[in-house]
From TrEMBL:
Comp. bias regions, Basic and acidic residues: 269-281, 479-498
Biased composition (Pro residues): 64-74
Gene name, Swiss-Prot/TrEMBL: RPAP1
Domain of life: Eukaryota
Ranges annotated as biased composition (Acidic residues): 467-478
InterPro entries: RPAP1/Rba50 (IPR039913), RPAP1_C (IPR013929), RPAP1_N (IPR013930), TPR_RPAP1/MINIYO-like (IPR057989)
All copies of domain RPAP1 N-terminal, residue ranges: 225-266
Annotated RPAP1/MINIYO-like TPR repeats domain residues: 1069-1289
Protein name per UniProt: RNA polymerase II associated protein 1
Protein localization: Nucleus
């Protein structure tokens, strides 16, 4: 046996081994089969070599090649038992057996023999060239078979015919093969379109295509006939369907021109045969072809392969009618007019004539070796994404185009393409990346709302379905600590896994930021690429604090942006396209810095100190836009972004030192505002610049406040930033007259809607500035309060009160309902291309009447209510006058729509943003109503409406509004003025309603009315209880208070928390009870807080108030969930439910749940919020009842309520099968049963196992009327119905069980039970037993019992 080579052996050793192997003559271990390709041959060898040397970009943890468009795992077929696997078969034989190509059939090709063909010499002509004639002259003797022959050839042929030197053209053409364009009789006979199966008996006289011409010898005709006979034999053995299938396969493989030629030959022979038959027939008419008849060449008249496959295509008609004077239009070539037809529907797999590319073809082109093809593919994909984002494919395609592309690996294909060396490919890649990441309309919406009330606050554009740790632990951490803690965890995950849940994180994991920095700094791309890169960076910065931090900390990225696109000096730039914007100020670069600064206080401080932004802000603010030597639009946007960046920095208390330097510039810009607003119509860019200026002045005014950070604040950043402000009140007090003048000027345009809408956020910004101005003025301890109070009165009487009573403002209130996203959920429906892994607001195609539209009244009315609240809080005397705005009919109608029962709004990115601003208006209006209620009495109807609105708003507030929720709980929710029922006969009406519904009188001392009256007196204690149990995270509450109170030095960031769900659950009124239940479950010793009874009693009191007077507040909590919360009271411990106040409150709430109008909605089989399984809860409830109830009737009533017949049989089986001992404690009398007994007895029970348990507990005495009267009546009713039922559809098992149970009943020794089971009639709670009995059984039952008795006697006799 030959040894194998070992390490260290040289080439000489290998050659020696080879010689020994050949000399031994042993069989090789493998067999090499070389088989050339039939199609490609060796032509692809060079190409494969070139492909091996192509440039391949590799990244860490990424595949080398992009995935397929529709990825699927490779499938391996299992060989069947009857067929051997491929390794036991010759590959060549297997390939030949399965090869169905046309070349596998036409394998025997014999070369044509031309030795017997006569050669004709050229015939000399008398003239060199035919005579020249004009086009308009009619040529004589024009041959009908001219076809596509040139004029020269036609004239020569005509000359020869006239001279009679050669045979006619038709005879000459019959000798040789017909050339291309030859005319046959087929042109005169219409043909049927589409494939037709051969008809008749397939008995052809001879072959039409194979004639044997050209073969050597006399066997030529015999060979052709042999081939013909073989073909006919194959056709005779095939079915018509098989013939059509083979015909279609051949048509798909052969060249269309070859098919047309073969068909022309076949039709020529057919016409020749018909003509011969007609000539042999006596008197047969002759056919003549005239010049007027159109002669169509065979190649033009033959249908193409596409026409054969699509017979429904319309017939092609020439677009114009040709004239004989037109050059080269004597013969219409229809195949050259194919491009004038309408294209068929898109089917890229079969209709390759369609223009454009499929997505799969574009994916292949992106990896082409030709850079132009790569750039073209990426450019087309960018256009596809842009159109998909705009919603243009919604009516044409099913599914999401973006989802299809991302599933196919498009994201990493872009990342690979970004590493290309060709500038055109990089440009196309950046355009596609921008189209994918930056949704159209998002940035415009966020920019336009920057000057709204709290408009600088934005939600992170990141998915909320992330795997996060405990929220309570995270709330106590700063955002920077969260980012640092999460980075190592996510760094271990591959980019593909990250991108599946979050596209932005997946991109950042592929070293995207260093590549973008390299493109900006080294390649110096054109302006379009620069803008695309800056737009992508802005989108990355809006993702989260972590992403913004990574953009800031990317080496040399921000330095490059500031140095190249925010220079201090530049050459003048004219209007129009420029080759490069490097070393030219760019507004988008300034916006990038503004978005980064909005992500956090620390980032803003690093930008101001580390990149010399103070000098750049001075540079771009000190110079007016028209003096910047830039295009006007770019200069205006640059100035706007500079104002916004300074405003963001001022929101943290930074940049105050610039105010003293730029004070003259700001005053000059503010004085020029009236002149700019007088331009009709106002320019949009100018309006945005003015609003940004006013927003900056608002923040600078708030910086002059003397309010310092709370001394007990545990925020490290707040303690470090608690430095005195560099802006004093005297420096900002002179701005108010100019801003007020601007406001008065804009309010004059309020009656003209078009001009008013064109002003945009300018009136809103003016109102917000006045709000901040009076807020800060009232906080100045060194000034006289009389000064600001008098100024407030002047403003109210001269401006605000006339505005509040103007009919034009009423029209704005009337349009609230039309623009509300809460009342119009269709405004917030996500688009078809919305992806959970790529968050976007989806603002494309939004209506102008939505909250984000140009006609929305929300920004202005919210700012107006903010100013009115500030004035009413500072000046109590103005409260009643300013509160007149709450009586607007439009506002009242809007509140009624908001409190109507509706489904919870769907939390989409756009709905979260829109609802956040809508809730601001609701909160400010309700706060103003609360202030007015403390000063003067409020109508009962309005007070009840406002209180309902407060409760609805509290359950809808989103993260970031913790301060609003805390203020509502503190001042509005438990306010006695918002409960007018307490003083208008509400308690008495509750008692009267209970007497009507229950039909029995009760002691007034323990009725529901007395409980409600006591609850109204205990409202302060109830408020303290809910402030304790509905407390929010302290860090989030402090940040929210800093935002809404204007405490700039405590603002951590302008980035709100991720909105995963509302702040409070829908069942927040039951939170104290739920907390008590969890505390009891988590405390093994059973020791509960000292005030457990008080907590439970306050919670039950508040729930009773809501159930009685505000039922719509609990509409989102199903009755089954309320029942489960009440059961938690009994599960807390063994003594809580015995307290008299608890007993009365629970009994009143349980009676509310058992009302006839509520009981049908009590569904225990549906999933309940906050509860995994109601049967599990009921099992625990039974165990607790069996252990500690001691026959408590209220406890027993709760046990009996889920045992109704319409509920799951599992609950009844749990009691009668696993907890039979609890039956002895269920002594609730029939008179105290909260629901009718028919709910338990109808319809008859059909569960055999439960019926047997019923019978067993009755017979054994575990269930008797003395211990459990309710269930005794229920069990007797169901057993009686079962033993006397005569259902013919019952199974044999049920029939046997029924007979057995009836026999045992007949033989019972307990006469009372036997009498009850046999003579039961119907339920009657008024009787002691709970049911009526038959005095005498009906005849049918009597006969049935007699037959049963006789049968039993016969059985006994037979046994004896």
């Amino acid at each position: 046996m030959l040894s194998r080579p070992k390490p260290g052996e040289s080439e000489v050793d290998l050659l020696r081994f080879q010689s020994q192997f050949l000399a031994a003559g042993a069989a090789p271990a493998v067999q090499v089969v070389k088989k050339g390709s039939r199609r490609g041959g060796d032509t692809n060898l060079d190409q494969s070599v070139l492909q091996d040397h192509r440039d391949v970009v590799t990244l860490d943890n990424l595949p080398d090649l992009p995935p397929a468009l529709v990825p699927a795992p490779p499938k391996r077929a299992r060989p069947s038992p009857g067929h051997p696997p491929p390794e036991y078969e010759d590959p060549e034989e297997r390939l030949n057996r399965h090869d169905q190509h046309i070349t596998a059939v036409l394998t025997k090709i014999i070369e044509r023999d031309t030795s017997s063909v006569a050669v004709n010499l050229p015939v000399p002509s008398g003239v060199a060239f035919p005579p020249v004639f004009h086009r308009s002259q009619e040529r004589q003797g024009k041959s009908a078979t001219s076809g596509k022959r040139s004029i020269f050839a036609q004239e020569i042929a005509a000359k020869r015919v006239s001279e009679a030197r050669v045979p006619p053209v038709r005879e000459a053409l019959s000798i040789l093969d017909p050339p291309e364009g030859a005319v046959s009789c087929e042109a005169l006979i219409p043909r049927e379109q589409g494939p037709q199966p051969p008809q008749g008996s397939y008995s052809f006289q001879g072959p039409h295509l194979i004639t044997g011409r050209g073969l050597w010898g006399q066997d030529a005709m015999q060979e052709a006939q042999t081939i013909h006979e073989e073909n006919m034999a194959k056709l005779q053995a095939m079915a018509p369907e098989e013939i059509l299938q083979e015909q279609q396969r051949l048509l798909a493989q052969l060249d269309p021109n070859l098919v047309a030629f073969l068909r022309s030959q076949s039709h020529t022979h057919e016409q020749a045969g018909k003509k011969a038959i007609e000539e042999q027939r006596p008197g047969a008419p002759s056919v003549e072809v005239t010049e007027e008849e159109r002669i169509v060449p065979t190649s033009a008249s033959e249908p193409r392969q596409e026409d054969e496959l699509e017979p429904e295509a319309p017939a092609l008609a020439p677009p114009v009618t040709p004239h004989k004077e037109w050059l080269h239009m004597d013969t219409v070539e229809l195949e050259k007019l194919q491009w004038t037809q309408d294209l068929p529907p898109l089917r890229r797999q079969r209709t390759q004539e369609r223009a454009g590319y499929s997505l799969q073809e574009l994916f292949h082109l992106t990896r082409s070796q030709v850079s132009q093809q790569r750039a073209l593919a990426l450019h087309v994909l960018a256009q596809v994404i842009s159109r998909a984002q705009a919603g243009e494919f919604g009516d044409w395609l099913v599914g999401s185009v973006l989802r299809l592309l991302l599933d196919a690996g498009f994201l990493f294909l872009l990342r690979f393409s970004l590493d290309d060396r060709v500038d055109a490919v990089i440009a196309a890649t950046m355009r596609a990346l921008r189209a994918l990441l930056v949704a159209p309309g998002d940035e415009e919406l966020l920019d336009s709302s920057f000057s709204w009330y709290q408009g600088a606050l934005t939600f992170p554009l990141m998915p909320s379905q992330e795997d996060r740790e405990d929220d309570e632990d995270e709330d106590e951490e700063s955002p920077a600590e969260k980012a640092k803690r999460k980075s190592p965890e996510e760094g271990n995950r591959p980019p593909s896994d990250l991108a599946r849940h979050d596209i932005i994180k997946g991109l950042l994991a592929t070293s995207l930021l260093p590549r973008l920095r390299y493109v900006l700094e080294v390649t110096c791309p054109p302006p379009s690429v620069v803008l695309d890169i800056l737009a992508v960076l802005i989108r990355l910065a809006r993702h989260s604090l972590e992403s913004a931090t990574r953009v800031l900390e990317c080496p040399r990225l921000i330095e490059t942006v500031v140095r190249e696109f925010l220079p201090m000096s530049w050459s003048p730039i004219e209007v129009g396209p420029v080759p490069s914007i490097h070393k030219v100020p760019c507004a988008t670069a300034m916006k990038l810095l503004r978005v980064l600064a909005s992500a956090g206080r620390n980032i803003a401080a690093r930008l101001l100190s580390g990149f010399d932004l103070r000098s750049r802000l001075c540079r771009f603010i000190a110079e007016a836009p028209q003096e910047m030597a830039l295009p006007p639009d770019e200069a205006s946007m640059l100035s706007t972004e500079a104002f916004r960046l300074w405003a963001v920095a001022a929101s943290y208390g930074h940049g105050s030192d610039l105010y003293r330097e730029l004070y003259p510039v700001l005053m000059r810009a503010l004085q020029a505002v009236p002149e700019e607003l007088s331009t009709q119509p106002p320019q949009p860019l100018s309006v945005q610049r003015i609003a940004s200026l006013l927003t900056l002045l608002t923040q600078l005014t708030l910086a002059a406040s003397s309010t310092a950070s709370e001394p007990n604040s545990d925020s490290a950043e707040a303690s470090r930033s608690a430095t005195p402000s560099l802006i004093t009140w005297t420096q900002v007090s002179g701005l108010q007259p100019l801003v007020e003048a601007c406001l008065r000027q804009t309010l004059k345009l309020l009656p003209r809607s078009e001009n008013w809408h064109a002003l945009g956020p300018v009136p809103t910004a003016c109102l917000l500035y006045l709000d901040a101005y009076y807020q800060v003025w009232s906080q100045q301890p060194s000034l006289c309060p009389e000064d600001w109070l008098q100024d407030m009165e002047r403003l109210s009487e001269g401006l605000l009160l006339p505005l509040l009573h103007s009919p034009t403002l009423g029209s704005l209130w009337d349009s609230l309902g039309c623009c509300s996203p809460l009342c119009n959920p269709q405004f917030c429906v996500p688009g078809p291309e919305a992806l959970p892994s790529l968050v976007s607001l989806g603002c494309t195609g939004r209506s102008s009447l939505s909250l984000a539209g140009s006609a929305s009244p929300f920004p202005f009315l919210t700012a107006l209510l903010s100013l009115l609240n500030t004035l009413a809080r500072i000046h109590k005397g103005l409260c009643s006058q300013l509160a007149a705005v709450l009586a607007a009919p439009g506002l009242q109608d809007y509140f009624r729509q908001c409190v109507a029962p509706m489904a919870a709004p769907q939390l989409t990115p756009f709905s979260v943003w829109a609802l956040h601003h809508e809730y601001h208006l609701q909160y400010l209006a309700l706060t103003l109503a609360q202030r007015a209620a403390t000063v003067q009495p409020v109508l009962a109807v309005s007070a009840a409406l406002h209180h309902s609105m407060v409760l609805a708003l509290l359950s809808r507030l989103l993260p970031g509004s913790e301060h609003l929720a805390h203020e509502l709980l503190l001042s509005c929710v438990f306010r006695l003025e918002f409960l007018p029922e307490r003083a208008s006969g509400g308690p008495e009406a509750a008692d009267f309603s209970d007497r009507l519904s229950l039909g029995s009188g009760r002691d007034s001392g323990c009725g529901r009315g007395a409980l409600l009256a006591q609850a109204c007196q205990d409202l302060p204690s109830i408020r303290s209880c809910y402030l304790t149990h509905c407390s929010l995270a302290r860090a989030s509450l402090l940040a929210s208070q800093a935002w809404y109170r204007g405490e700039l030095r405590r603002v951590p960031a302008l980035l709100l928390p991720v909105p995963k769900e509302p702040l409070l659950p829908t069942d927040w009124p039951f939170l104290p009870l739920i907390h008590l239940y969890h505390q009891s479950s988590d405390t093994p010793s059973g020791l509960l807080p000292a005030d457990t009874v008080g907590t439970a009693m306050r919670a039950l009191q508040w729930v009773l108030i809501l159930e009685s007077w505000r039922p719509q507040a609990l509409w989102a909590v199903p009755p089954a969930a309320r029942l489960a919360r009440l059961m938690c009271v009994f599960l807390v411990d063994s003594e809580l439910f015995r307290e008299t106040p608890i007993q009365r409150l629970v009994a009143a709430l349980l009676a509310r749940l058992c009302q006839p109008k509520v009981l049908p909605d009590l569904k225990l089989d549906c999933p309940l919020p906050g509860l995994t399984s109601f049967p599990d809860l009921y099992t625990n409830f039974l165990e607790h009842f069996e252990a500690v109830s001691f026959g408590d009737h209220l406890f027993g009533a709760l046990v009996l309520l889920p045992l109704q017949r319409r509920f799951s049989v599992t609950l009844r089986l749990t009691l009668f099968g696993e907890h039979v001992g609890a039956l002895r404690a269920l002594g609730l009398p029939l008179s105290q049963l909260l629901v009718s007994l028919e709910y338990y007895t109808e319809p008859p029970e059909d569960n055999l196992a439960l019926l047997q348990l019923y019978f067993r507990t009755l017979v054994t005495g575990a269930l008797c009327p003395r211990w459990c009267p309710v269930l005794y009546a229920v069990a007797v009713a169901h057993v009686n119905s079962f033993i006397f039922s005569q259902d013919p559809k019952s199974s044999d098992e049920v029939k046997a069980a029924r007979k057995n149970m009836l026999q045992k009943t007949w033989m019972l020794t307990n006469e009372g039970l036997r009498q009850h089971l046999l003579h039961y009639k119907l339920p009657n709670p008024a009787l002691p037993e709970g049911f009526e009995l038959y005095l005498q059984l009906p005849p049918l039952r009597q006969q049935y019992l007699q037959r049963l008795a006789s049968g039993m006697l016969q059985n006994e006799v037979s046994v004896t």
